[in-house]
Design goal:
GMP Synthetase, Chain A, domain 3, 509 residues, 9-stranded mixed beta sheet, alpha/beta, 15 helices
Amino acid sequence: MHAIFDEGAPPPCPTPFNLAAYVLSPASTTPEKVALAVVGPHGAERWSYGRLEAAVRGLAGGFSAMGLAPGARVLLRLGNGVEFPIGYLGAIAAGLVPVPTSALLTAPEITKLAREIEPAAILAGPNVPLPEDCPAPVLDIDAQRARYEGAPADYAMGDPHRPAYIVYTSGTSGNPRGVIHAHRAVWARRMMWEGWYALQEDDRLLHAGAFNWTYTLGTGLLDPWSAGATALIPAPGVRPGQLPLLLKRFDATIFAAAPGVYRQMLREHPHLVLPKLRHGLSAGEKMPEATRAAWTETTGTAVYEALGMSECSTFISGSPAHPAPPPASGYPQTGRRVAVLGPDLAPVGRGEAGQLAVSNRDPGLMLGYLKAEAETAERFHGEWFLTGDVVDMADDGAITYLGRSDDMLNAGGVRVSPLEVERALHDHPAIHEVAATEIAVKADTTVIAAFYTGEAVAEDDLRAFAAERLARYKQPRLYVHMDQLPKNPNGKLNRRRIRANYEAAYGAA
C-alpha cells in the first residue's frame, strides 16, 4: 500500500472574504463576551469581542486615512502585548499585508529584512530595534492606541486567494524567507478544530507563548476567536513555573505550549491539580515520550501533538477523538491529502521512511516565498509541496516524525538555518571555519552548538559577538573549539557527524 492518505476535500472558503472579519465575527453576536484575557499572578486585563473589534477596525481606519495602497506591506516591530494581534488584524481588515517579525531580531537583521519587505508603514513597540534608513512612516505605541478610538473602517472584502500576511521562516539557503499566505489560510485552520483541539465555543484556551510568536498567534488567538471561545495569554514576565497557578485560577480548559514549557512546569511542580483542564496541545518540536507520560500521570490529562510548518501551519495531529499511538505525532486532519515520497519523488510503501509532502490543493498552503521564485519552485513537484520532514506512515495513516532531510536547527520550536548562524560567527577574526548543529545535552533537551577552528576564544567573548549579530533564539548555547571540522567526500561540512561524535564522547542520549 502506498503512503498516500486522503482525508477528503475541505469545504471551500466563502467569497468575498477577509481574514480579520472572519476571525472577529463573534463580535456581532456576543460583543460582551471576553475574547482575550492577559493573565498574571495579580489579575487580568480583559478585552471583550466588541472592544477588540472596535480597536481593530479603528486602527484599520487609521491606515485608510494614511492613504496606503491595497496590498501594501506593514512591518510589525511589536513586543509581547495586545498591540501585536490588533496591529496584525487591523492591517488585514484594511486590505493591507502585515509582516510580523520577532522583536528579538537585531538592528542589522531587521534592516536586511526591511530591504526585502519594502514596508509602506511600520508599527513600532518600545525598545524594539527598527530598520535603519527605512523611509516608511513609523507609528509608535501611542499613535497606534490613539487610532483604536477612531472611526471604524469597513472590512476590505475580496478574493480569499489574495495575499493576507507574510511570516518569516529560515530557509535552507541560510536566508530567512518571507512566507506569503492568503486570506483563506485562516479558513483552512478549521480543520484543526476537531483534528487537534476539539475546540468548543465555551473553551478557555491558555497558550504559554508570547503574543508575537506565530504559534501563539494562530493556536492561541485566531482559532479561539474564530470559534467564539476565550483566549488566555500570560502577561509579560510570567515564568513557566507560574503557569499552573494561572491555569487553575482562570479556569483554562485547554493548554498549549512547546514541549520545553511542559518540562519546566513539571520540574517545579511534580504534583499538579487542574480540575477544569481537558487536555494539552504541543507543537514546535517533537515532545519526548517521557515528558508526555509525566504530564499525564501528574495531571490526569493527555497531550495531543501536532506537526506542521510555517508554509502550511499544522496539518498532522492527534486529538481526543483520534489519539495518536506513540511515537506517532498524529494523523492527517480531515480535509488534508498528504504523501510520503522517496528520493524519486514517488510515494513509498507504508512503513517506509520518506519525505512528507502536502497536496497543493490544501487551502492552508502558502502562496509562495517573497521575492524567491526559484526557491518556491524547488518546493513544488507536481501535486506535492515538499516539507523537508522525514517521516513514515503506518498502515492506519499514523505519521511518525523521524527528523529533517536537511540540517535545520530547532530553537524552542522555531526553525533556524545553521548557515545563518555560521555566517554571523564566521565574521569573528579568530574563527577560520564554523559549523552550527543541534546537540542533545539531556535525553529530552537540545541546544544550538557552534563548533569552530582557528584560535581558541573565551566563550563569553563569543557569546557577546553572537549577541550583536543574531537574535537571542538563534545564538548558540555551546561553543566547542576543534582542530578541524569533519567533511564529506565532496568537502562539505558533515554536521551530523559532528553531532554524533560530540554526543558519543560526552554521553548525551
